[in-house]
Specification:
Order of helices and strands: EEEEEHEEEE
Distance between the termini: 31 Å
Number of domains: 1
Length: 130
């Protein structure tokens, strides 16, 4: 969303007359894999629930304890890359069944400015109650 001061004209570059505001939403997705490279942030590769269609990646922004549980779960559910996915050497792919809650920019088809908030095994019961 973009807001501007009444009567201001557009000029390129930084200005206090125009303000860009990002609107976020939270959604549930299926984990396809985790990309981890030494010295770089870790990312979760996401799919649309039930379809397996890749929709983007999300920064893994959970606390250390949850991150360790996620790494363990990823190792337990490891599998070869899904059909049609490009080779990504630093990626550990996972079997279907790990659901995640992702905060992402609203109004976009693919995930943008996304971060992982929570995860759980798909048991048909939905996300854990906090």
């Amino acid at each position: 969303m973009v807001s501007k001061r009444l009567g201001s004209r557009y000029v390129s570059g930084p200005t206090t007359n125009w303000l860009k505001t990002k609107c976020y939403t939270v959604g549930e997705f299926e984990l396809l894999g985790v990309e981890r490279e030494q010295g770089k942030p870790a990312f979760a590769l996401m799919a649309e629930p039930g379809t397996g269609k890749y929709v983007g990646s999300a920064f893994i922004s959970i606390n250390r304890e949850m991150r360790e549980r996620l790494w363990k779960r990823v190792q337990e559910h490891a599998r070869p890359p899904p059909k049609g996915m490009p080779k990504r050497p630093a990626t550990q792919w996972v079997k279907p069944g790990i659901k995640v809650r992702i905060k992402h920019l609203r109004g976009e088809e693919d995930l943008r400015h996304a971060s992982l908030q929570d995860f759980w095994n798909d048991s048909g019961k939905g996300p854990p109650k906090n």
